[in-house]
Amino acid sequence: MATTMDNEQKTLWNTVKLLSQLQDKEKAETLLKTTIEKSLRLMNVYTPVVSQLRFSVPVESYLDEMKQIDAQIREKIEISQSEQIFEELLDYIEMISKMTEKPQETNRKMLASILAEKTQRPTYVGKILHSPMNKTVATNTQKESNHPYYTTREAAHKLGLSDQTIRRMCENERFQGAYRSEGGHWRIPEENFITSKKQDKRIDEFFEQIDMRNEEAGDVDEFNL
């Protein structure tokens, strides 16, 4: 599973570089956000601040360095969670901040949001969901909301994780405001993610174009698209 995840992340970083070379700045920025989001999620780090940021896609050498550090940190975290690894994670977050207009301010906000997420107590909705007597109340309260949401299947596809893992994350309150529908299915508010469904669709369409061209002409060099 780890090898598959590494390959997926490498593909994402390489595609960001490809889009940058093609000078498709909008798609490059969107995919960069997606790549960072998946990277941080796999490191068990959640910082909603990133969704509010505008990124400038850096030079290729910087993207290659990000890709390498991403893989190294995730590999080390799976083995242990020493102080040194968290120092490397802080450096990684600083590198992310440098791709924004105000690096120092962004770095502070990202760290503050991570600490807040790690230390916050369960939300009111979370408490209700753990109370069988009030489950209907929680469902009705959330049902009245018209905010866009992700299903566990959609979130699993987005983050490159299994549906079971996403459901477990919902049960452990890893997604703010996640709730069960009347049919008992988890619903995850869109604001939990860096990119929107509309942006996800555009990136998926881009990958579909690559796949179609590969089927038509064999193994196509993506840099010739």
UniProtKB/TrEMBL annotation:
Cross-referenced Pfam families: HTH_17 (PF12728)
Domain of life: Bacteria
Domain Helix-turn-helix: 149-193
UniProt-listed InterPro entries: HTH_17, SinI_DNA-bd
Designated name of the protein: Helix-turn-helix domain-containing protein
Organism: Virgibacillus siamensis
